[in-house]
Specification:
Elements (H helix, E strand, L loop, with lengths): L2 H16 L3 E3 L11 E3 L1 H20 L4 E3 L9 H5 L2 H4 L1 E6 L6 E3 H10 L3 H16 L3 H10 L16 E4 L3 E3 L12 E3 L5 H5 L2 H7 L6 E10 L14 E11 L4 H17 L8 E5 L9 E9 L2 E10 L3 H10 L5 E7 L4 E6 L2 E8 H12 E7 L5 E7 L10 E5 L6 H12 L5 E3 L5 H10 L4 E5 L1 H6 L1 E6 L5 E5 H12 L1
Parallel strand pairs: 3-9, 19-20, 19-21
Antiparallel strand pairs: 1-2, 4-5, 4-6, 7-8, 9-10, 10-16, 11-12, 12-13, 13-16, 14-15, 17-18, 21-22, 22-23
The structure holds adenosine-5'-triphosphate.
Adenosine-5'-triphosphate binds next to strand 10, strand 13, strand 16 and helix 12.
Length: about 475
C-alpha cells in the first residue's frame, strides 16, 4: 500500500466518523474490534445500496424472488454445508508477540515487498500448498523466506493450526459447555437460508427452473485479521442471490451472472478501471468455476463480490442430511431424448456481495479533497463525496438565504412537498457557503436556495454538488428535476 493511499484511507475513515457515516461500535468503551455502527448518513447510504441491489435483483428480474430467513438455523445446516468441518483458516502464532496471523495473509504481505517475479513464485507455491492443505509445506515456506512478525520482528512461529470462524452460542435457559445439543451458530453466510428454503420458495412462488432466490442480511465471522475498517468485519451484511439451473447449463449462467454483476457496478457510474475479475484457480472440490469482482480500494485491489458455480453440492448435502427429497421436476422436453428432463437436483450459480464492502467501495470512490481557484487568485478547498445521486443519503438540501423576510416559511413549504418524494434536509444556520460545504461533505447532490427573488417569481437557485454550478428554476420543477437525476 502506498503511503499516499494509506493517508487517503485514514482520511476516509476520519471523514466517515466526523460526518456521521460510520462509528466504531460501543466507542465509549473504546470500541469492539472489527465491529462498527452506522450513523445517520451511513445508515441511509447503506439502506440505499441495499435497496438498489434488491430492486435490481427482484423487481427487475421476473425470475428472481426474495426471502428473509432467520439468522439462527438448525445446527445440522452447518454440518451439511461443510462449515463445521471446513470453515476455518490456517493460522499461525508468533511466539514472541503472541500475535495470530492468517497464513495466506502473512505470506501475501511478505510477497508485497518482493520483486514481482519472486512474489509470483512465492504466491503460486502458496496457492498449491493451500489447495492441498499442506500445512507442513506452508510452515517450511514461511521458514524458507524467513518471514517475520510485524510486531516482534522475529520468525519464532508456532505450528500452523485450523481456526473455525463460526460464532457459537446456546439455545435454552441452561448453558453448559458440554451440551453440544444446545449449540447454535450465528450464520457465517446468508446463502444457507436460501438453500434450505429452496422447495418452499419454488412451490409457493410457482417458480420454474431457471430461477433465483435473493436475500440480504447479517452474517458473522470470527475473523482473525480484522483491522481494515469495514472491509473485514466480524458482524457484517451480505447480499446474496442463488440462481438454480438445469445441470449442464451452469457454464452459460455463470458467464451470464459474471457479466450482469459487473454491469450492475458500472451502472453506478464508477469508472470501469476500478474493477477487475479475478478467476480462482484454487476451487473447492464441488465447485465448477469461481471468480471475484475486485475493486480498487485505497488498500489496493481486493474482493468486493464473489460469483460461484457451485454444482448441486449444497442442495444435495441438505438432501442427504435432512433425508428429505430436494428435487425439481422439469417438464421441459429434452431435445436429445424427446422426453421431459424429469427430476433432478438443480445446479447453483451464486452471486455474493458484502454490503459493507460495497459501502466502502462507494465511499472511497466518492471521497475527494478538491482545490477550488477563487476569482482573487487564491485557492479555496472542499471535501466532497461524489456519491451517485441515487445512493446519496440526502438528495436535496433546502436552504433559505436568510432567517427573515418570510424566506424560511417558503423553504419549509417546499420541504414539506419534497420530502414525500425523497430524503431532504432543511437548514437555516450559517452562511450559505458553509451550508453548501457541509452538504458536499455528506454527498448531497442538489441544494436549492430560497432568496428574495423567490418571493417575486417563485423560482429558486439549484446548486449542483459535482460542478458547483448554479441555475434558476421554478419551484414547480424541483421535484421533477431531482427525481429525474436520482432514477
Ligand atoms: P475474503 O476472502 O475477503 O475473506 P470470502 O471469499 O471469504 O472473502 P465470501 O465467503 O465469498 O468471502 O463472501 C461473499 C462476500 O461477503 C465477499 O465478497 C465480501 O464482500 C463479503 N464478506 C466476506 N467476509 C466479510 C467480512 N468479514 N467483512 C465484510 N464483508 C465480508
Amino acid at each position: 500500500m502506498a503511503t499516499n493511499d494509506n493517508n487517503n484511507f485514514q482520511a476516509i475513515i476520519a471523514h466517515a466518523k466526523e460526518y456521521g457515516f460510520v462509528f466504531p461500535s460501543s466507542e465509549i468503551y473504546d470500541g469492539l474490534s472489527a465491529v462498527y455502527d452506522y450513523g445517520p448518513w451511513g445508515s441511509e447510504l447503506k439502506k440505499n445500496i441495499r435497496d438498489y441491489w434488491w430492486k435490481s435483483m427482484t423487481q427487475l428480474h421476473e425470475d428472481i424472488v426474495g426471502v428473509d430467513a432467520a439468522i439462527f438455523m438448525h445446527p445440522t445446516t452447518w454440518k451439511a454445508s461443510g462449515h463445521v468441518d471446513n470453515f476455518s483458516d490456517p493460522m499461525i502464532d508468533n511466539k514472541d508477540s503472541k500475535k495470530r496471523y492468517r497464513v495466506d495473509h502473512l505470506i501475501e504481505a511478505h510477497a508485497e515487498g518482493l520483486p514481482p517475479k519472486e512474489a509470483d513464485a512465492l504466491l503460486s507455491t502458496m496457492d498449491q500448498l493451500l489447495a492441498k492443505d499442506d500445512y507442513n509445506g506452508l510452515k517450511k515456506l514461511i521458514d524458507e523466506y524467513k518471514i517475520k512478525c510485524a510486531i516482534s520482528g522475529t520468525s519464532n512461529w508456532t505450528e500452523i493450526r485450523q481456526f473455525n470462524l463460526m460464532f457459537k452460542t446456546e439455545f435454552g435457559a441452561i448453558a453448559s459447555d458440554n451440551d453440544e445439543e444446545n449449540i447454535v451458530y450465528l450464520r457465517p453466510e446468508t446463502a444457507q437460508g436460501i438453500f434450505v428454503n429452496f422447495l418452499n420458495v419454488q412451490k409457493t412462488a410457482r417458480m420454474k427452473v431457471p430461477f433465483g432466490i435473493a436475500q440480504t442480511g447479517k452474517a458473522f465471522r470470527n475473523e482473525i485479521v480484522a483491522r481494515q475498517f469495514i472491509f473485514r468485519m466480524r458482524e457484517f451484511e451480505q447480499m446474496e442471490m442463488q440462481f438454480f439451473v438445469r445441470p449442464g447449463t451452469e457454464g452459460k449462467w455463470y458467464q451470464h451472472w459474471k457479466t450482469e454483476r459487473l454491469n450492475w457496478h458500472l451502472s453506478l457510474g464508477i469508472p470501469a478501471e476500478k474493477f477487475r475479475y479475478h478467476d480462482h484457480t484454487k476451487l473447492a472440490h464441488y465447485a465448477k468455476e469461481a471468480c471475484d469482482i475486485e475493486f480498487e480500494f485505497p488498500i489496493g485491489f481486493k474482493e468486493l463480490e464473489g460469483i460461484h458455480s457451485r454444482s448441486d453440492y449444497d442442495l444435495s448435502q441438505h438432501q442427504q442430511y435432512s433425508k428429505k427429497k430436494i428435487q425439481y421436476y422439469d417438464n421441459d422436453i429434452d431435445p436429445a431424448t424427446g422426453k421431459p428432463y424429469g427430476n433432478y437436483v438443480p445446479y447453483v450459480v451464486e452471486t455474493s456481495i458484502g454490503l459493507d464492502r460495497m459501502f466502502l467501495a462507494i465511499l472511497s470512490n466518492a471521497y475527494q479533497e478538491e482545490t477550488i481557484p477563487k476569482e482573487d487568485g487564491t485557492n479555496d478547498s472542499r471535501v466532497v463525496l461524489h456519491i451517485p445521486p441515487k445512493l446519496a443519503p440526502v438528495k436535496l438540501a433546502i436552504l433559505p438565504l436568510t432567517r427573515k423576510d418570510g424566506l424560511p416559511e417558503i423553504a419549509r413549504s417546499i420541504m414539506n412537498d419534497c420530502r414525500q418524494e425523497f430524503y431532504c434536509f432543511y437548514e437555516e444556520k450559517d452562511t450559505i457557503g458553509k451550508r453548501y460545504r457541509r452538504m458536499d461533505a455528506i454527498g448531497t447532490p442538489f441544494c436549492i436556495t430560497v432568496d428574495h427573488q423567490t418571493k417575486d417569481d417563485h423560482t429558486v437557485t439549484i446548486r449542483y454538488r459535482d460542478t458547483m454550478t448554479q441555475e434558476r428554476l421554478p419551484i414547480s420543477r424541483v421535484i421533477e428535476l431531482v427525481k429525474e437525476k436520482i432514477r
